[in-house]
């Protein structure tokens, strides 16, 4: 039964009879569920609450309903295997009940940065042990994790933000588990590229996710040239300190007139979506460097034929490649391969502008 010692005059009615059974409920949870208990006269010392059960006899604790994730036993509902769990990209509320249940039930959580992930687990009062798992120790950790999985453990993998394996550690481990016939389960959650794409205003029916560009300038240029010729929306992850470089190189490949969207600090307090042309973006961000990771989307080419670059642009690209160590013949090949201009035309320009260097190369051969 429920015992109430001193309670201000108040009528409480129930349309159905609720049988009671033994066991103490959580006072705080019950207080949150019953409106009058949140009033100013409520004092935990004046009440003793007992849990109640349904007519069928199953126990109900106040507050423990479908809105709060229920814990599963490690050997019960969850099967042993690798669970790739999506976590918030900024706002800690952007996590599913299922994700929380998996994280609570796992034997271990693989985390890109244990200090960063520890804040998320602390926020949701999750006590599962953390193990670091990032790009610098991924190869060493794989066999340790694989052994634990083969022993029947439940392993959850999270990244610092978003969905594991998408420009984050996890891809190789997932491949290894698949090859070893170990269960791999996706636990859907936030993903920066999909979040930005959905509100971009650009075409969403088809898109190409490029992610982070290569560090080597020649490889970056090749990739941007490929993207510039595609008709689908192109999506890139760009660190804030490399935004100016990205816009300059994109301008050379896509042209200044191509529309782009720069998504910054998504789901956070200072969330921003900048929209305009690549040329306008260069001007807008030339004087300041934004904070936070950036997701940049560039519209696909709209015409079947890409507008040919000017002779000055071709010369600039050739000189840039040569200064970065490429031979003249390789520079000609790269520039011609990334534009609609024929290789013969680019080679002719190279002879006029860099003929002396070509002669030196031929003599050395």
TrEMBL record:
Q: Which SUPFAM superfamilies match?
A: Tetrapyrrole methylase (SSF53790)
Q: Which domain of life is it from?
A: Eukaryota
The coiled-coil segments of this chain are: none
For whether the record's keyword set contains Transferase, the answer is yes
Instruction: Say if the entry is tagged with keyword Plastid.
Output: no
| Record-level Gene Ontology MF annotations | methyltransferase activity
Keyword list (alphabetical) reads: Cytoplasm, Methyltransferase, rRNA processing, S-adenosyl-L-methionine, Transferase
Cross-referenced CDD domains: RsmI (cd11648)
Residues in domain Tetrapyrrole methylase? 82-281
What does the entry give for GO biological process? methylation; rRNA processing
| Name of protein | Ribosomal RNA small subunit methyltransferase I
Q: What is the lineage of its organism?
A: Eukaryota, Viridiplantae, Streptophyta, Embryophyta, Tracheophyta
């Amino acid at each position: 039964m429920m015992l109430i010692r001193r309670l201000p005059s108040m009528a409480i009615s129930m349309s159905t009879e609720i049988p009671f059974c033994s066991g103490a409920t959580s006072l705080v949870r019950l207080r949150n569920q019953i409106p009058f208990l949140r009033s100013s006269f409520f004092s935990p010392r004046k009440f003793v609450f007992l849990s109640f059960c349904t007519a069928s006899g199953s126990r109900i604790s106040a507050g423990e309903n479908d809105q709060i994730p229920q814990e599963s036993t490690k050997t019960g509902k969850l099967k042993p295997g690798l669970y790739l769990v999506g976590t918030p990209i900024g706002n800690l509320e952007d996590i599913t009940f299922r994700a929380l249940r998996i994280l609570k039930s796992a034997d271990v959580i693989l985390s890109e940065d244990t200090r960063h992930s520890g804040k998320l687990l602390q926020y949701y009062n999750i006590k599962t042990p953390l193990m670091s798992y990032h790009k610098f120790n991924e190869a060493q950790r794989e066999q340790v994790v694989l052994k634990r999985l083969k022993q029947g453990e439940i392993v959850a993998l999270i990244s610092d933000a978003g969905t594991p394996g998408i420009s984050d550690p996890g891809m190789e481990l997932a491949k290894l588990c698949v090859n070893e016939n170990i269960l791999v389960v996706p636990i859907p959650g936030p993903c920066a590229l999909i979040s930005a794409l959905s509100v971009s205003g650009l075409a969403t029916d088809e898109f190409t996710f490029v992610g982070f560009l290569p560090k080597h300038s020649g490889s970056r240029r090749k990739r941007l040239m490929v993207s510039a010729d595609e008709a689908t929306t192109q999506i890139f992850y760009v660190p804030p300190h490399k935004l100016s470089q990205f816009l300059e190189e994109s301008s050379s490949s896509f042209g200044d007139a191509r529309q782009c969207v720069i998504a910054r600090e998504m789901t956070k307090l200072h969330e921003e979506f900048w929209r305009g042309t690549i040329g306008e973006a260069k001007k807008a961000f030339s004087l300041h460097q934004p904070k936070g990771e950036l997701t940049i989307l560039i519209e696909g080419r709209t015409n079947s034929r890409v507008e040919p670059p000017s002779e000055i642009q071709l010369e600039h690209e050739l000189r840039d490649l040569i200064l970065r160590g490429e031979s003249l013949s390789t520079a000609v090949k790269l520039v011609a391969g990334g534009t609609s201009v024929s290789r013969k035309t680019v080679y002719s320009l190279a002879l006029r502008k860099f003929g002396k260097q070509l002669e030196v190369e031929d003599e050395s051969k």
